[in-house]
Every structure is written in structure tokens, then in C-alpha cells.
Amino acid sequence: MSTPVTPPAIQQFVRYTPTLEQIPDDEAETIQGLTEALRNISERVYEDSGHAVRSVHAKSHGLLAAVLDVPEGLPPHLAQGIFAKPGRYDVVMRFSTNPGDILDDSISTPRGLAVKIIGVEGERLPGSEGENVQDIVMQNAPAFTAATPKAFLKTLKLLAATTDKAPGLKKALSAVLRGTEKALEAVGGESGTLKSLGGHPETNLLGETYYSIAPVRYGDYVAKLSLAPVSASLTDLTDAPVEINGHPNGLRESVNSFFVQQSGEWEVRVQLCTNVETMPIEDASVRWPEDESPFVTVAKLTAGPQTAWSEARAAVVDERMAFGPWHGVVAHQPLGGVMRARKTTYQSSAEYRSERNGCPIHQPREQTYLPE
How far is CA 358 from CA 152, 355, 361, in A? Predict the structure, then answer.
């Protein structure tokens, strides 16, 4: 379990109000540009492969069935939204890496984790009416590489231009970028841009802590979320190297190898906003200071031994499911420009996959059986 902390007084937590969001006049135009850039990525991959995949996080490395346990006795400021009362939920977890094309793992990029919680009650967000899931979409970084949708569009255009081109060159570039990032980290630095372009360390993705990056409504309050490994079997893998060179699916192999006989346990943690100046809503590139508001545990997530990735599981999760922060309840409404942009762009990506592959996207409504 995480170290107990003394939270700020409840009155110090920023209460949610719609006025916390400041929407630029040209945001719709920017989001349209993002949607088109992501569609370009999907179209290029489809033209080359004849199969449509996600425009980002196309390659999955682990597809897990898990269980979320919300405990009794959470204090009022933490007992919010889906964590307001104790309960147990079935969960699907999808580990991935960033690119929108299927690359060898030796092109090492940031890791993502999408969590789909099934059987959630409550008023639904627009576009998710009729569903009963709550999705949490995370990356292994506490902040985003771009502050706003407009800043992200510049980076995305660069990534779109390199999609499915010169994979051999990408491997060589990734090796150079990893060396540069390692040297930078040796002197206390870090570059999200270098990591996103292929400079991420070749480490086991199961040892990572994942973050929502951008804020969400947390019932009466505002928060960022994280999922942190806590079982010794997982924490032993933090920063642990994984064999990737010569293993185009080395990350997938490492996840499968782990779950053959072992279980994994994570904590869902919440960082409540206490100051919108130091914890901005509209700037996703700012890491909220943990000395002002630490992450605290609100639930436990457990995945038992299983086949962590198979073609049969991919047919269910990769092909038929869509993950996005707007699949959820009003009590956890995504906040800020980056989150607002995800609504249209994620929906467009899912629709393109469904149309091209002739496979309807659906949300599970009850306990999901994932084949071995």
C-alpha cells in the first residue's frame, strides 16, 4: 500500500465548476486538424496493410482480465464518483505503445495503458449513453508532451509524416535517441519529445506507473489519476531491462511470460487539485506538484495468471473494443483542451476501424470472457 499521508483540509480542495475550463475560440478548428492528422495515419497504415488499426497506440502488448476493488471507509473527499461506495468490478486492461503503425519493439516509444471498468452506474457523458463502462486512458508519464491541442497538432503532423516509412531507419534513429535520453537522464534531465520519437528506455512496461496525464472531474472535485504497481512481482520490474533487439514483439513476450504463473497488483491513486495556478486545467504539460497534493490510494486492481496476449484476445479487445476517457460517467468528465480533443478524435478513429474492417465496435455490458 502507498505511504499514508495527511491530506489538505477538505475546504482546500478545488471544487469542480464548469468555469474551470477555458475554451479558445478556435479550438474546434484545432480539433478538426487533429482528427484529420490521425485519419491520415490510419489511412496510410490501411493502404499498406489492408487492415485498419488505431491511429495511436495501435500495437498492444498485454490484454488482461482484471478485477477492481473499491474498499469501505474512504473519506468523503475520496469517496467520489465510481469510488463513492465499496464494490468490485470486472476490468479489461490494454497495454500498448504510442505509434499508429505496427512497429518492431526495438523502436522504443512511451507506453500506454487503457483500463475499462465494467458495470459502472451513474449519469453518462455525452456520446456514451447506453453504456455502463468507465474508461481510464493513461501513459507512463505524469504530464503530456504538449500543453494544448494546438501544440499537440504540431507534433502530430511530424509523427503523421513518418508513419509507415523507413522502418530500418526508425530502428537506427531509436537507438541514437535512447542513447541521448540516457545521457540526459544521467545528469538529472528528461525529454518527453525524445522518448516519443523512439528514445524511450528498453524497460519492462509492467514495472511502470501510469498516469491520466490530464485532469478529470472527481465528483465534487478535480483530480489526476494514476495506476501504480505494488506487488513485489511487479515492482521488481521497475526500470528492469527487457530483451527487444532481435525480438520484434519482445514487450508482448515479456508480459506473457510474467502472467503464465504470476499475479499482478496495482493501486488506483488520485491526486486532488488544490491550486489551479500550480495545477492548471488547460495546460496538460504541467506536472502537478506532489508536495502540494500527493497521490492517495482509492482502489486496488488485480490481474491473476492468464494468457496475457493472444490472437484470440486481440480479436476481442483490439478489434471490437474502443477505449477513451469520454466512455464514462459525468462524475469523471475529462477536463482541459487535450481531454476535450480526445472525444472527437478517438471517436473518429474507432469509426474508421469499424468501417474498414467491417467489425462493429461495442462496449461490454457484463463480465467479459477473454479467450486464452
Answer: 31, 5, 10
Q: Which of 35-44, 162-171, 222-231, 254-263 has the lowest mean pLDDT?
A: 162-171
- DSSP H or E segment with residue 63: strand 60-70
Cβ atoms of 210 and 229 within 8 Å: the answer is no
User: What global pTM score does this model have?
Assistant: 0.89
Q: Please measure the distance between the N-terminal and C-terminal CA atoms of the chain and give it in whole angstroms.
A: 31
Residue 297 has pLDDT above 70, yes or no: yes
pLDDT score recorded for residue 162: 59
Distance CA 161, CA 164 (A): 9
Q: Is the four-CA dihedral 52, 57, 62, 68 of positive or negative sign?
A: negative
Neighbours of 176 (CB within 10 A): 12
What cell numbers appear for 259 in the block? 502472467
Measured between alpha carbons, how far is 327 from 67 in angstroms, rounded to an integer?
Answer: 19
Helix axes 27-49, 149-162, angle to 10 degrees: 20
Q: Any idea of the CA torsion for 21, 144, 320, 218, to the nearest 10 degrees?
A: -40
